[in-house]
Design a protein that fits this description.
The chain is of the alpha/beta class. It is built from 15 helices and 22 strands.
């Protein structure tokens, strides 16, 4: 696939890195010579210095032959015009744009991004995507990661196995025998610095992170079996009242979570603006690194601190301070992947990488075949993929135990006619089933092959 990426920042670089590693033909455009040089030096991709919306720059980057343009510069308007130019002058089939301003995304203007107006096929709003992930973490205390699939009927949760975890040192096939009515499957284990697909005789050990695919109504029970019975947060302090922090606070109010919210925002004008927009949330003007402000927010009695400023260091330090002052849990937004390796050492319970969230959304549209959703795991070492089985799929018809599936992927759940189906050796996948698969990076191409239509497959 030939892809043109506009923007070589953290998100653009991350997308280019992933696509180039999969041997796609990638061109990256940015106005910064330093960022473009980093692309040329480190990736198997071409870099072009210039404005991503200018026709001559797009032409030089190969837009005439491109299958897709991904516009992820810092400016919404540049992203929108880049897609318009790619459509009007170069007839690029698939156009993806990152749009951050919520003004463009209001339901009242939903016809804006259409073929007759601004021809953008996929709009990605990082603030909304990250905000929804924060809300899922709040709703599922104890989960290090949580993603929904299959019309919200199936979930993938990442669960830390602590020393007191009741299910460690027990082979997975024994767990199936002990809990036969539990609609959940352990599909992957992160141990040390690697991920692997467990066999039925494998067992989890303390320190592991288990990736479990479960029917949504069985997620809380699954967390409980792993020793995570943390109650829902009743008192939440949000550090950062930007787009993400405001979105989370407003949605908690709107969805009647029942939690008491306080928001700490460093910018006075922004603090006044969001205070006027929120009904039941207390907004404090000050720094999340100011102990007096945290105490004013009643952090000592807090259940959860959510740090979502634009500064990773503020998010890390405020999370650590909150724990020291008595807050029960914390969740930090971390853009820099280098910081993620020592979060546990510092006492950070969970973190969200917005770049990973955006890359996952892009991959959903890059993957060939009937791919409905993709979630990237541990900076790309694995993916959770939801795909629809076609009549021509090699998965259809035979019992799973008879299929020659590679060892580096595992089927976690099947969604059939609105119902969850737990996979077993005798399960047969049918056409139109939606299958949730945990696949190591080396198996992603195989997954694409299994779900491609017949003309593409041959």
């Amino acid at each position: 696939m030939k892809v043109v990426i506009c923007g070589a920042g953290q998100v653009g670089y991350g997308i280019a890195e992933r696509l180039a590693s999969e041997r796609n033909d990638v061109s990256v455009i940015d106005t910064s010579r330093a960022l473009v040089q980093a692309i040329r030096d480190n990736l198997d991709a071409r870099g072009f210095v210039g404005h991503g919306a200018h026709p001559d720059v797009l032409a030089e980057a190969g837009a005439e032959q491109a299958d897709m343009i991904i516009a992820v510069t810092l400016h919404d308007e540049v992203n929108m015009i880049a897609c318009q130019v790619a459509h009007s002058l170069f007839n690029v089939p698939t156009k993806i744009a990152r749009i951050r301003s919520q003004s463009y995304l209001r339901a009242h203007w939903q016809d804006l991004f259409s073929t007759d107006n601004l021809p953008i096929d996929v709009v990605i709003s990082p603030e909304v995507e990250v905000g929804e992930m924060v809300l899922r973490r709040i709703a599922l205390p104890g989960a290090m990661d949580a993603v929904r699939f299959a019309d919200d009927r199936i979930a993938m949760v990442a669960i830390e196995c602590r020393e007191d975890c009741p299910v460690v040192n027990t082979p997975l096939d024994q767990l199936t025998e002990l809990f036969p009515d539990l609609n959940a499957t352990v599909v992957g284990i992160w141990r040390g610095d690697r991920v692997f697909i467990p066999a039925s005789g494998d067992q989890m050990v303390p320190g592991d992170v288990a990736y479990v695919v479960a029917e949504k109504s069985h997620v809380r029970r699954t967390l409980g079996l792993f020793g995570h019975e943390e109650p829902e947060a009743g008192r939440i302090v949000i550090i950062g009242g930007g787009n993400i922090g405001f979105y989370v606070a407003s949605q908690i109010e709107r969805r009647n979570f029942g939690a008491r919210i306080r928001v700490v925002e460093a910018n006075h004008e922004r603090a006044v603006t969001i205070a006027d927009s929120l009904r039941r949330t207390i907004v404090l003007h000050g720094s999340g690194l100011d102990q007096a402000i945290l105490e004013e927010a009643d952090i000592a009695t807090g259940d959860l601190l959510v740090a979502v400023t634009n500064d990773d260091k503020v998010n890390i330090l405020s999370s650590v301070m909150a724990k020291r002052l008595g807050c029960k849990g914390n969740l930090a937004l971390l853009n820099n992947a280098d910081y993620q390796g020592f979060t546990r050492t510092l006492g950070i319970d969970a973190f969200i990488n917005p770049r990973t969230v955006t890359i996952s959304r892009v991959l959903q549209h890059v993957r060939r075949g009937r791919i409905r959703a993709v979630h990237s795991i541990q900076n790309g070492v694995a993916e959770v993929i939801e795909a629809e089985a076609l009549e021509t799929s090699p998965l259809v018809g035979a019992p799973l135990r008879e299929l020659d599936l590679p060892e580096n992927l595992r089927i976690g759940a099947i969604y059939r006619a609105g119902e969850y189906v737990k996979p077993s050796g005798q399960t047969r996948i049918r056409a139109k089933d939606r299958v949730v698969i945990f696949a190591a990076a080396s198996a992603v191409r195989h997954v694409e092959q299994m779900f491609r239509v017949s003309l593409e497959f041959f």
